Amino acid sequence: MEKTISGLSVFLSGKQESKAIVFVHGFPFDHFMWAEQVAEFSKEYFCVTYDIRGLGESVVGDGQFTMEMFVDDLEKVVDELKLDKPVLCGLSMGGYISLRAIERIQNKFSGLILCDTKSDADDNAGKLKRAAAIKQINSGDHNNFIETFVQICFSEKFTKESNVGFREIVERSKKNNPKGIKGCLLAMAGRTDTTGCLSKINIPTLIICGSEDKLSPPSVMKPMSEKIPNGRFVLIEGAGHMTPIEEPMQVNSEIKKFLSENKL
Ligand code: MLT
Asked: From CA 222, how far away is CA 101, in angstroms rounded?
C-alpha cells in the first residue's frame, strides 16, 4: 500500500497491528533498495519504507534540504502512522538520519539497526567532494555522477557477478531529479557530527558493515559500534557499502537474530 505523508511517498507492507520497522534508504537510491528486507520481514512485522525528500517518488520542491528536515520527515511518518516505538533501520545517509533522530527523539524508537554508515560529519575533504559533485551535476553531467557514485557503493564482485541487477540500480538512480540529488548532497555536507550521542543510545543496536565498504569501512564502523552501550557489530564478508542488496540472506538472518534476541 502507498500513502503520501508531507509530500513523501510511503510504502507499507505487512499487518498494521504488528511491530513496525521503519527502513530509511541511502543516497542516491530510493525505498526499493529494501525490497529483500521488506519481502522477508513483512511476514511478521509492519514494514514502512519511504522515499527521502528529493528522491524516488517523493516531493523535490526547491531542493534546499537539511538533515534536520529529513529527521522532521521521519518523525512525521512515525507520528502520522501512529507507530508504537518502531525499530529504526537506516543505511548510510539513512543512517545519518537515524543517528540524528536518535539524538533528538530516541524515546520514539525501541531498536536501532545501522547499516554501512557513520556518526562523523563530513570533514573538509568530504565537503569539497560534495561541492565537486554539485558542480559536475550543474554542468549537465548528472548521469555520469550517478554512474560513478553508485559503482563505488558496491563491491567489485557484485558489480561483475550481478551485472543485470547492478545496471537496474544504476538506471533507477539516474531517474532521480538532479535538484533532489543536489539537495541531498547539501544536507549531508551540512549535517552535524552525532558521535557524542553514541554513548547515550539506550536501545538495542545492531551495526552491520560490509568488509569491502569503501565509504564507511569496518575501520570506522567497528570503533563507532564500541561506543554504543548495547551495540552489536556484524561484519558481512565480501560485501561493499550496500549490504542489504549485496548479501540479503545474511543481512536478513542477522536482523532476525537481533530482533528475536531483543524481543523486538
Ligand atoms: C549513501 O550511501 O547514502 C552515501 O554514500 C552517503 C554519503 O555519500 O555520505
From this structure: 21
d(CA 231, CA 233): 7
The atom of ligand 1 lying closest to the CA of 26 is 3
Strands (E), 7-66: 8-13, 20-24, 46-50
Q: How many domains does the chain have?
A: 1
Domain of 174? 2-261
Question: pLDDT by residue (tens digit) across 45-86?
Answer: 999 999 999 999 999 999 999 999 999 999 999 999 999 999
Position 222: which residue type?
Answer: K
CATH number for the domain harbouring residue 52: 3.40.50.1820
Count of residues for the chain? Answer: 264
Q: Is the CB of 133 under 6 A from ligand 1?
A: no
Centroid of ligand 1 to alpha carbon of 96 (angstroms)? 9
Enter the pTM of the model: 0.98
Closest CA to 143 of 168, 162, 171: 171
Query: What distance, in Å, lies between the first and last C-alpha atoms of the chain?
Result: 24
Q: Which atom of ligand 1 is nearest to the CA of 185?
A: 8
